[in-house]
Design brief:
The chain has about 140 residues and is an alpha/beta fold. It has one domain: Rossmann fold. Helix content is about 35%, strand content about 25%. It contains 4 helices and 6 strands. It has a 6-stranded mixed sheet with strand order 3-2-1-4-5-6, with helices on both faces. Strand 1, helix 2 and strand 2 form a beta-alpha-beta unit. The longest helix is centred in the first third of the chain and has 17 residues.
Length: about 140
């Protein structure tokens, strides 16, 4: 969550999205891990003149306020990239996907900062989603 980290991840994340040819209107994922990534990517997009805003997915809807799981900049029918800080099993991304689809979002891909290479990326791809990871655990020297 450092300013420098947000600048680096935002720019790299937007590059990853655009490199895949994805053109989402919104990015977001499960709170709390996805939040700084989504916000950083949205800010980087703004700096480049790209219309891309962020949302967050709550673990569960609250019984006050809007009562929704998907909060922030979001509209039904829009193209969405789900973001993750790390992919391990893929469960968190699938949970975010289900919540966004329940609100009418159209998932066009998944962006992760780190793929821990523990089967999550393969599981998400097997479920039919393209996954862009900025770096792997091996590339970080963690495997």
């Amino acid at each position: 969550m450092s300013a420098e980290g947000l600048a680096v991840i935002g720019s790299m994340g937007l590059d990853g999205i655009q490199g895949r040819g994805w053109a989402p209107r919104f990015v977001g994922g499960m709170t709390l891990g996805a939040d700084p990534v989504a916000y950083a990517v949205a800010l980087a997009a703004h700096g480049r003149g790209v219309a891309l805003d962020a949302f967050t997915v709550r673990k569960q809807a609250k019984d006050h306020g809007t009562g929704k799981r998907v909060e922030g900049c979001f509209a039904s029918g829009a193209a969405v990239v789900i973001v993750e800080d790390v992919i391990t099993t893929g469960h968190s991304a699938l949970e975010a996907i289900a919540a966004v689809q329940a609100e009418g979002g159209r998932i066009i891909g998944i962006l992760a900062v780190v793929d821990r290479e523990e089967g999550g990326k393969a599981a998400l791809e097997q479920a039919g989603y393209g996954v862009e990871a900025l770096i792997t655990a091996t590339e970080l020297g963690l495997r």
